[in-house]
Amino acid sequence: MDISRRNLMTAAAAVAPLAGLSSAALAGAASASQDTGPCPLPEAPGARLAPRPPMGWNSWNSFAGTITEAQTLETAAIMSEKLLPFGYDVLTVDIQWYEPDASSYSYNPHPVPALDAYGRLVPAPNRFPSAKGGKGFAPLAEKVHALGMKFGIHVMRGIARHAVELNLPVYGTKVQARDIADTSSICPWNPDMYGVDMTKPGAQDYYDGLFRLYASWGVDFVKMDDMSRPYDAHAPEIEAASKAISRCGRPIVLSLSPGETPVVRGPHVRQHAQMWRISDDFWDDWGMLAAQFTRLENWTQYCSAGSWPDADMLPLGRLALGDRDTRFTPDEQRTLMTLWSIARSPLIMGGDLRHLDAATLALLTNREVLAVNQASAGNRPHYLEDGMKVWSAWSEDGRDCYLALFNVTGGERDVGVKLAQLGIDRPAQVRDLWQNADIGVAQERVSAKLPAHGSLLYRLRFR
């Protein structure tokens, strides 16, 4: 897609590497990997689990709670062929894989989920036939692994209400489900679970047994829902899940949902999870996208290896059980990908890959754009003008500056920034990363005319 640009370049001689940076910017580039905000943070415990923002696909935006084993395998094959070469390697089966009668985005008010003898949720065999005989997700995970990808599941906080009704034993203990359940701790939007009272004997054992089961299935990624809101009330179970993962014998990335996770709890959440949602469910609505700018700005200080504020999935392509395509305009789709990339949010595609069109595929697989998401540092917003958003970052070696310009108004307008405002005091060679093209040299200012809700993503090089 062509983006209208205006006179951003003038002739200039090449300059030596880093010669275009002021002393302040040189210091910033040299310490870019530690540039996480006002106070440098210690390495997150999960730095080795998720050294870069996770990339993958999740079934929620396109299948709700209805996905089957056949649909998962069909999607996995497409993902392996078309997205895995670009780094999208985590396939996640979202909510209610244990519910035999799941049918849409609404929930059965009195569910009878599939359970094992210890009250742990297992895949509904009518939807995941390879799970029969107590095999769980192991056969499906094995097939996903054979394609070169990781396997993820969505789970809800707590213990199944049906397990409490049956008062099933807790694995590895002498207590029963009713002994650890907190029946006053109820998710307001999903009827499947009760919270777990972490002060009760056997409560941590329950979570330990849960994650040992997931590890035995070959699960690599767990999106745990009804955790981040209200945060303080659920903090004991966040800690319990983190501790259980450390004991399960398999490296598992923990992603907390939904948001809005309170920013003041950043130090706590990064100790126990590798991803956490910064908003409620994000869908293809400009108002929601506009709101994510401020949320991502607020969370910048906590963005580092193993510590990824999550702006949620990418609602692109075919959505909502096949009922419609994304409502985002082409300009808004590019703005979405540009913002998620410059802010280093995880990139989790939500659209139905069975209907993946060429334009959406191109949007997801631009290697130069993905490099900003996966391999940049010192990512930060600049507060310059109303109606305009500006972010910058550095390449990991400190040689190049990345610049994202956004027009968040409802009409066309000029958007630009002086190089001096980025700490740069020399001309810069400019490359348009969406167009994969060098477009000239900026002497003092980078600017462009952007359409409503439009964006550009540049690399500035000094040599």
TrEMBL record:
Its EC number is 3.2.1.22. Gene3D superfamilies: Aldolase class I, Golgi alpha-mannosidase II. InterPro entries: Aldolase_TIM, GH, Glyco_hydro_27, Glyco_hydro_b, Melibiase_C, TAT_signal. Residues 1-27 form the signal peptide. It is an enzyme of class 3 (hydrolase). Residues 386-460 form the Alpha galactosidase C-terminal domain. It catalyses: Hydrolysis of terminal, non-reducing alpha-D-galactose residues in alpha-D-galactosides, including galactose oligosaccharides, galactomannans and galactolipids. It comes from the Bacteria. CDD domains: GH27. Pfam families: Melibiase_2, Melibiase_C. Residues 32-51 are annotated as: Disordered. Keywords: Disulfide bond, Glycosidase, Hydrolase, Signal. SUPFAM superfamilies: (Trans)glycosidases, Glycosyl hydrolase domain. Belongs to the glycosyl hydrolase 27 family. This is Alpha-galactosidase.
